[in-house]
Amino acid sequence: MDFPVTYERKVRFSDSDAQGIVFNANYLTYFDDTLTDYLEATGIGWAEMTRRGVDMVLGRAEVDFRAAGQIGDVLITGAKVVEIGRTSVVFEMRTWDQATSQTVAEGRLIQVMVDHRTHRPTRVPDWFIEAVERLQRAPSLRRESTRRREPRRPESGSSPAVADESPTLDPGRLRPRG
Q1: Are 88 and 59 in contact (CB under 8 A)?
Q2: Contact between residue 121 and residue 113 where contact means Cβ atoms under 8 Å apart
Q3: 5-141, which class in CATH?
Q4: How far is 109 from 59, CA to CA, in rounded Å?
Q5: What is the pLDDT of residue 144?
Q6: Mean pLDDT computed over every residue of the chain
Q7: Where is 119: in which H helix or E strand?
Q8: What number of helices (H) and strands (E) belong to the chain?
Q9: Core vs surface per residue 11-33: b (16+ CB within 10 A) or e
């Protein structure tokens, strides 16, 4: 399946860096803009989610850079859900050049469903899963495993900020680096 939702962006001067190409962090902005459009396409935008008592926060972002977007290029970013866990939703993202179809960046966003009031992880609601499955015409994106994944153990020499990843995000644990 291709991407059920796409977002188009003409690269502006403000998107570029001193090298004259899209600044790498801007691809995460393109991913986030596409995610917003994706949720609206399901019929459940951010406002509706929060009205129903849930929200999503970014638990992990991965980006692989394949080519350089340049000022004047029209970039298309696509999004689709590839897995739904107990408290997480995994989006596959890809950005490509409209003129050449060349992939510029691709990655994954792992969004964690949280209680809107407490920001504590909560189960992905059935109504959300059903809306995603309707949009993507997918029979089931639910991960069947009920086994709890163990947190990753720190590798020697790794930073505690990275090494303390767990399968569910606890926003209360997040502390600014200092």
Answers
A1: yes
A2: yes
A3: alpha beta
A4: 8
A5: 57
A6: 85
A7: none
A8: 4, 5
A9: beeebbeeeebbeeebbbebbbe
